[in-house]
Amino acid sequence: MTVLRPPPSSEKKGPPKFAPLMLSSPALVAEHTPCTLHHSILPPELACELFYTMLDASRAWQRNKWWLFDKVVESPHLTSFFARRTNGLDDDESWQEAAQYWYNGRATEAPSTFPEPMERACQIIERVVNEEMAKRKRFKLEWGDPDAGSPPVWRANVAASNCYEGSKESVGWHSDQLTYLGPYPTIASLSLGTRRNFSLREVVPSQEADIRRARTFNIPLPHNSLTIMHASCQETFKHSIPPQSSIDLYRPAHPRGTHPANIRIGSHYDQQGHYRVLGAATANSSVPSIAKPLPSPPSAVSSTSASVDAAIEPSNCRINITFRFYRPDFRPGTIPKCHCGIPTILRPDMKSRVNGETDRYWWTCYAGAQNDGKGCKFWKIMDMKSEGRGPCVGGLKP
Fold first, then answer.
1. Residue 248 burial class via C-beta count within 10 angstroms: exposed 0-12, middle 13-18, buried 19 and up
2. Burial class of residue 274, CB neighbours in 10 A (0-12, 13-18, 19+)
3. Do 91 and 112 share a domain, yes or no?
4. Residue 244: which domain range?
5. Tens of pLDDT, residues 14-29
6. What's the number of domains the chain is made of?
């Protein structure tokens, strides 16, 4: 009797899939990603002071809105932007006034300057970032220090800050726009407050899609931890803060203090029970000094513990501060405009990299993010030399 068998399948089996991997230590993070993880990066008192400062300031922050697929979407977290008094290269404090930055297809308002606790934290973080950069491979399109003979130095002159309240506020998969950062940026991301997971997933080059798949890596980020996304991270990986089923409340190790920064950018109740954000109207004139009556500060959970514990405010918030270096060769006046008359954004060609490096970037229209979803489809390959960019590590000079 002939045994009937199904005909051989003509379908090719794809590369194997792997379950998400939890990277629970700095060693695992360094092994699997172009990032480094640093625990207890700030003195505990400063970490708590900065957390309180940013948590209070977050009451004046906004949720970004933009058009996506014919509808307006809103970011599921609060966000704000800060800039240092100088550009990090010299003592000129007029650089912000001369710069008109754009985000999500619209011009941004003048950013607030770094609060004093953020400035102190930034100085510590800059030192750690530069120490780590000295150990790593440099890429030819990275920013190169214009002073010959001196090692390139990373300087944080801007910071984007986000507030994630509860377990469901999140941000989806993305890589950071390179419009003002330029190719191969280094970004230092400080986590304060509630522990959340930070997810990374590689974008596999097209020529390797048949032989391997991307794997998701999850990194738990506790309070007072620093994640450095080193050069090549934005060109090779996308990242996200996914929603979680549950989180643990964060209980600061130190109560609110009386540091002048806390008073200047702090939050208090007046005699009528209104929640007052001190200094908010000065930093951003569109924000009123008195908000609506509220029963408690943002995400502060009432405590029934002893009076000693009452000074500590449990919180379900994560504050994230990403320190960045806006390159002077990518200042706003040098950014090409699309046919809509709006500055374009810079994106890397993530799927066409060769030998682990990306050498092609393009400028593309982003006006549709605000213009009812309508853009002009402008697209142009970036040419570092003809556009006068640099100096770069690879020797390119303007």
1. exposed
2. middle
3. yes
4. 21-250+317-330
5. 899 999 999 999 999 9
6. 2
